[in-house]
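User: I'm new to structure prediction. If I give you an amino acid sequence, what do you actually give back? Let's try with this one:
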Amino acid sequence: MLGLPQIPTKVKTLSSMLRFSSARLRQMVVAKCLSLGLYSMALDMCQQLIEGLKPLPHTAAASSTSDEWNVAIHALVSCERELSAFLANLASGDMDAADQRGNHPALSGRSQGSLISRLASVCQAACLKCASHGYIASFLDSYACWELTQTIFSQTTDGDFALLTKQTPPPTVANGASGNGSVGQNQNGATSRALPGSSCNPAPVESEHMELSGTEDPKDSSSSSWLGPLFLNAYTERGLVLDTERTMHLTYRLVSALRWLPTTETCGKNGDAGLLDSVGSFSSEAAEPKNKEPLRNKGSGSGSGSGSGHGYDYARSDEAMLSLLGVEDMRYEVIQRSSALAAHLAQNRHWILAVHVFELATSYLARSSFVCQASGGSAYANDALDEQRQRLTAGGVSADEMAAFFGSYDSAVPPLADVQTLVSKSLQRSLQQRGIDSVFVFSSMLMEPPAKAYQYLSTAMSHSGLLPARVIALANIGAACSLVWQQQALLDRCRTVAAAARWSEQLQLLQLKFDVALLNDPKPELLEPLVRPMLLKTGMDITALLEFADAFRLDETFVVLEYILLCCSVADVDGYQARILGIAGEIANAKLLERTYVEALENGVSTYDYERLQFVVQRLHELRPQDRIIGKYAAVLDILCSYDRHTPPTREELLVEQSRTHSLQSAVREAATGSADANTAGGDRIMAAADSSWQDLLASYPLARKRIPFHSLVNSSPWTTLLPELSVETIELLLPLSGPLELSEDDFYMNLIDSMLKRWKADNALTDGASDTLTAYELAANRTPTQFNTVQQLIRCFKDPEAAISTIKHLADELPCGPDRMAALKLGMKLLHKWGQYIRRMSQPESATMMAKAETIYFHFEKSYAAAKTETSLRRRGLEKYLPLFLDVGGGDAAIASLASVFEGECEHATRDPGGKGKEPLHATLQNLASIYDIGLSTLAEKLLSRYLEAPVVYGRSPERLDLPSMRYQAALRQPSSHEAVIRRRIVYILRMYPAADAVKYMMDFAYAPGGGVSCLNRARALAILFSFASDKEISPLQAPESVRRYFQALLYLADFEHVGIPQTTADFLNCDKAALARSIWVDNHEDPNVAQLVCNMCLDFVVQDCGLLLHILPRLSDSGRFFYVAHVLSIVSSLSCYASIADLAALWNQAVVGCFAQLVQRTDGTWIEDLFSVLGLCIRSRYLPDMDSLAIVRLLLQKADGQGVAPCTRGFQMACAVLDVFPHRGSAEQLFLGFIGDMEPDRVHRCILDVLELSENARTATMRGTQLFVDWETTRSLSLIFDHVDAIGAHELVLLRPPLGKAVRAFVQNRIRLDKLASTVNSCLDRNKRQIAIQLVCQYYESRSAEVLAADARRAGFAPSGPDEESLLLSGGGGSKAREYEDANSTTHSLGSETHNEDDGGGGGPDDTSVIVRLATRLSDQQKLSIYVNSHN
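Assistant: Good question. You get back a string of structure tokens that encode the predicted 3D arrangement of the chain. For your 1434 residues, that looks like this:
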């Protein structure tokens, strides 16, 4: 509160001299402030007066103390009346008219709130000070009115809403009031009242309002921090924001009427007159009452008039009107005004405020009921007495008055129904807020009919399922109301709901998700899933769970069993043994307890927690002492407690354990984290666990580092757990498990050996990856059999010999090839011998059965031992790929077939690389392998020679596929990859094993072997091989070399005779006249092309000089399509002088060549290129080449090329290009070729260029193989013709710049440079403004030529040195407009000579000038070279 300045000392001295008391002085100050309109200062002075009052004595009523009381009360009453009139005038309906007259003070809405708050505060202080005196009733009425006014104002636009929004800054002193508190002038010249906080330094009224309305510094919230929870659930009604002007107008009118209503406290007088009369009148001027204005319209609710003072027209007229009303009229006025205000508040959803207005009005009306109005004297009229009696009977307000209260006085505002309707609406609103005001709701429900109140309560509880505390509060209210209404069923229902809400709140505090409906309508089978998570959340509090079970009728045995199960399963439960032993005795049903222990053992206790497992097993043993499985579990646990794990657990093992205990462990995790629903299934959690890393899983089971899983051992497959632990060091510790697990000790050793083999194999695999140069044999054979020595000690521990032998067999199969496998197989055979001796001592028939089994196993060991030796030999030589050939090979022909396959596979490599780079020769390898199967090398060689020499002859490829067998055989020999060539190389390699004489004899014996079992070509094959490695000197001891050659030739012809069906023997052929034989054969079989080919061969081989016969044979062969053969024959005939007289050779050449090209263009295989160059080679070597019709050939090929679709046939076009390049120049052929190119689109021309380049590459390859065509394939005629066409049409970009980029461009540039035809390209680049490309082309052109060429071009371009000094020479330019154009663009400036030389004048300068230009050529820039080239080539 703002402090009031102290009264000056001089004033106090003067008042003392005039015998004015301090209270009187303050009263005068209050009166003066009121007269000046300084209401804030007046209120401050009243506050000081009230605070300075002393207790009123009971003896001397006229003492100074009583005087101070009278002064203070009178000052407060005057201040209240004046402020009431002032505020009522502010809210009057004629505000604008008052402002125009200058009689209305300017005051904001917030300032009104400040005055109302200050006035209520002062009245409250007066009530507290007068608590023990008779003035308390009047001050309580004042405080009630202004407290209600303050509450209503806070709901208006200038109340709390304005404080929250703070749209405008706090207003200053109204209308520019002066600082000393005097009345200032407004803009219109009229006076207005200011409201300063003090006379010296006026403060805004808004600041006072903010201070008094409870606004405090946000930093100082110490009081609200502990007081807030006390009123947290108090109901606060939040209706619509009210309009300040209308609402406060109605409020001030009601307050004025209430203050003028006579009551018993005012001694039946109107307004504050009774109070003022009780305290006496004042002698000062300030104590005189104001002049009252006459009432214009009695009973009207509004009016205005002119009065003295500060122009409170409306307020004065209202007071005057109220002062003239009688008691009954005043009551009616109060009812009318309160009804209007209450209806306005109810319309804006302020039902509690409307009820408060109704309560305040009825309170005044009830107290005024005892004040009676005389009718013509002191006696009451009969009607008045009856009405008074009815009113007193009804509690102070009659039924008519009550009906008038709920009537309608404003058509814009609907009338009030009744108080109960207001209470119902406020009750519904209070039940919707978060906190429950229990007192308000309880009282409101008692005012409602029970059925409707219960409906409201039930609806509120149904919407409060997520707020247990709210449900509890509502249920308690319902229980209290049921006691008042005497409804037992409602009481039971509310108690059930309260219990459900209480436990739901507990469950929410435990962070457990559940369905509230389960608690409201409890069913044990649905609530049982909550027991386990509740136990975990409460820290295993069994007492709380038993209370929960009792509240919802759950089976206590079930709760106790769940408690025991969790105590056994949860690892962090302290004192689980004492907990279980202390409560297990309460379970009467032993079967249920046993089932619980079994569930804990199987699905709860960790498989690594041996202590808990032992405890559970002991409890089960107490319940089932004779159970063998329980004893087995106990024995296994005793052994495991003394064993430490050696290998870390695998991820799969941990996942299995987590899957086994997921139901209990997931509940534990959810209790720890509170992140999942206790009632959900564990499928999602299992999937999430499957995605966990090994480290996360191991962190969940720390004991797994040192312990092996118990459940995996006692289940059906204990080896899954035992195998990783088996080792030489641990087997003695694990062997005791064989008894309780009912396992054989031999199985331990067998599985240990198997695990050792797997580890060795893994180590070998790592070694293979680390060392690529070592073979599998080198990894195994380069070491001593250390692995087998380790295993051998374990094998000796076997008790069953059959199991030991089986283990050895498995060991031998798994060990790598080398000494370990060999040693294992030897030990196996040794044990088999001992086992056989033991079997012989057995009785029959068991002995015979076992002996047969032992012999079968021994045979298998022998076979494996032989296979191991073979594999060792093959791996030593790097021949592992042949191992499948020797599977199940016992010897004999099968072994020879396998050895033959090895020889065939390695013969080619051995033939190409006889030295073998340090490797063993192939025959040595064969000898080693053959010895394993008791086969000698000579025997193997004879078998192989006989196999290959007797193999059928496979003919080679023939262009016409109609050749004679001898010709096809010879063609096959010319192809290195042919089957016949391969067989020949194999036979030659085998013969190297023999001495030369033995090899010659062997081949001669085969060729001259009597009988008809060997074909002529097989004999010829042997003689051909003989001639390949044996000399005449080596053959002559057995047969004359010439005789052998004639025999070889006869064998080939005999094969041909046999093919064409002409009988002939070797002797007849060798002894007959070959010319006569040829003619006779032709006479009898001249229609057969094969016979014609045979006769032609005889004419050439035996030089039959018969031109006529040859002229008949060659056309016959051509007609049969054997053009390639005819071409080769013509090549031979052309070189023989005896056939020089044949005049038709040129025509035959043309026919044969055209036929060859016609067949080549139709080829579909990839051999056409070889035959093409073969034919071209024959043509090059022929003297009839100039007579060949290249035009016809080119036309044929281009026709074939053009008939293959949109793109030309690559093969036909390439052949046409080859003909143009090889055959002599023919202008007609070139013109035909250019016409063919000219009709093409640019993309087809580009494709043709690539085809010609491909042909050039193939031609260079053919030249390297020996086919010389004497053609420069870098600048072929066909390629040059294509590039000339490109230059002619200027389509360089369209033709050359196509994908694939670079190849065609590169070939074009090289061709143009080599042929010195670059000018057209350079000019085209310059025309297209591609100067840099032109420079690159010119530079490349001059780089490929000597400096003299550049000097000559410079001379032709008109450039010459200007003097003899080499360092100061400059080139002078001339020679045309283009030269000047390029020189202008050049950055280098040339000095022009005095004379311009041109080529017609013989050039410029002599030899000395040329030499100088040659020396200066290296110093020319690229731009100068471009200028020189352009001027010299245009």
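You can read the tokens as a compact description of the fold. Here is one thing that stands out. The two ends are 112 Å apart (CA to CA).
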